[in-house]
């Protein structure tokens, strides 16, 4: 499972939809909404493993539809639903307004995505001076959060497991150290030992599923399990477009494992087949994180408990809304 950076994916989808809407100058609102939906389906079909692509496209469609409704009714919506079902009757905006409204909405959303993907993005105040934080694997939001805190003069330290078999812990540790952040690279076997010195675990999963669970690196799941046993909170930095209505069984194809050649030393691969006939190598790169391993999902649009994610996917009026 090779995820493109989530903010890069989001920007690519938004830019594709902007180019599409440009071609629909003179179209009505309903025509533009149908075109956005069709383009989203096309983009998703071209990269079926990248669920974020479909999420972003549907998010764009929802934001444009909401703005059309506001234009028609004159009422400013105070809340926007995460999973909004299209009305039986689409907003019928005249062509003179539909194009400009859609372009303005997409441009504003693109600007927000760029801001969230930068060091100057939303910064959360749950790390105090002197804290020790454990994190696993590189995540753009977690990294930017650490850098932003350090730029503000907050002193803290970070613990990073090696994270086999991805082996990305060393690169992340060196990057943080170069950013003037006190960092310790630890072995995977010592995660529980070092967690006793940490105030919390800060992770950045790839997808948040409808039951409140998540897809993350296998090292992140291991760390979250250790944190639960020791009694340390696990916070996940993510964005709304990573929330999806999928169950774990429908994304099981994303849970790839490392190739045996990446696990065994090169010299051992020269041995005869009989040396390996009783050997099975299980080295998952990605794993499913149970909802009870997560304390909270923290986004730029609010903090969500894992138990609330299911409600976000429910039909109105029972589903939760967010500002």
Automatic annotation (TrEMBL):
Query: What cellular component GO annotations does this protein have?
Result: cytosol; eukaryotic translation initiation factor 2B complex
Identify the SUPFAM superfamilies for this entry.
Answer: NagB/RpiA/CoA transferase-like
Where would you say this protein principally sits, based on its record?
Answer: cytoplasm
Pfam families per UniProt: IF-2B (PF01008)
Q: Name one GO molecular function term.
A: guanyl-nucleotide exchange factor activity
Write out the annotated subcellular location.
Cytoplasm, Cytosol
Q: Which domain of life is it from?
A: Eukaryota
The record's note on quaternary structure and interaction partners says: Component of the translation initiation factor 2B (eIF2B) complex which is a heterodecamer of two sets of five different subunits: alpha, beta, gamma, delta and epsilon. Subunits alpha, beta and delta comprise a regulatory subcomplex and subunits epsilon and gamma comprise a catalytic subcomplex. Within the complex, the hexameric regulatory complex resides at the center, with the two heterodimeric catalytic subcomplexes bound on opposite sides.
Family assignment from sequence similarity: Belongs to the eIF-2B alpha/beta/delta subunits family.
Q: Which protein are we looking at?
A: Translation initiation factor eIF2B subunit beta
């Amino acid at each position: 499972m090779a995820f493109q950076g989530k903010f890069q994916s989001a920007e690519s989808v938004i830019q594709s939809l902007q180019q599409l809407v440009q071609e629909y100058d003179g179209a009505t609102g309903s025509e533009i909404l149908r075109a956005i939906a069709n383009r989203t389906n096309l983009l998703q079909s071209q990269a079926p493993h990248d669920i974020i692509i479909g999420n972003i496209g549907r998010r764009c469609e929802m934001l444009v539809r909401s703005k059309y409704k506001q234009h028609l009714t004159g009422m400013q919506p105070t809340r926007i639903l995460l999973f909004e079902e299209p009305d039986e009757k689409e907003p019928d905006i005249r062509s003179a307004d539909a194009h400009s409204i859609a372009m303005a909405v997409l441009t504003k959303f693109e600007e927000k995505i760029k801001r969230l993907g930068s060091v100057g993005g939303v910064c959360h105040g749950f790390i105090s001076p002197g804290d020790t934080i454990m994190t696993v694997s590189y995540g753009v939001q977690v990294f930017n959060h650490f850098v932003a805190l350090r730029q503000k003069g907050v002193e803290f330290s970070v613990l990073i497991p090696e994270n086999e078999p991805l082996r990305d812990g060393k690169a992340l540790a060196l990057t943080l150290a170069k950013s003037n952040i006190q960092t310790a690279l630890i072995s995977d076997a010592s995660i529980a030992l070092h967690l006793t010195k940490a105030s919390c675990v800060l992770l950045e999963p790839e997808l948040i599923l409808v039951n409140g669970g998540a897809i993350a690196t296998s090292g992140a799941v291991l760390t979250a399990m250790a944190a639960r046993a020791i009694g340390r909170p696990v916070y996940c930095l993510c964005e709304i477009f990573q929330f999806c209505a999928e169950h774990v069984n429908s994304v099981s194809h994303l849970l790839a494992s490392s190739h045996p050649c990446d696990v065994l030393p090169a010299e051992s691969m020269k041995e005869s087949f009989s040396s390996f006939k009783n050997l099975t190598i299980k080295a998952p790169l990605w794993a499913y994180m149970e909802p009870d391993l997560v304390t909270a999902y923290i986004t730029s649009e609010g903090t969500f408990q894992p138990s609330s994610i299911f409600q976000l996917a429910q039909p109105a009026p029972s589903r939760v809304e967010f500002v």
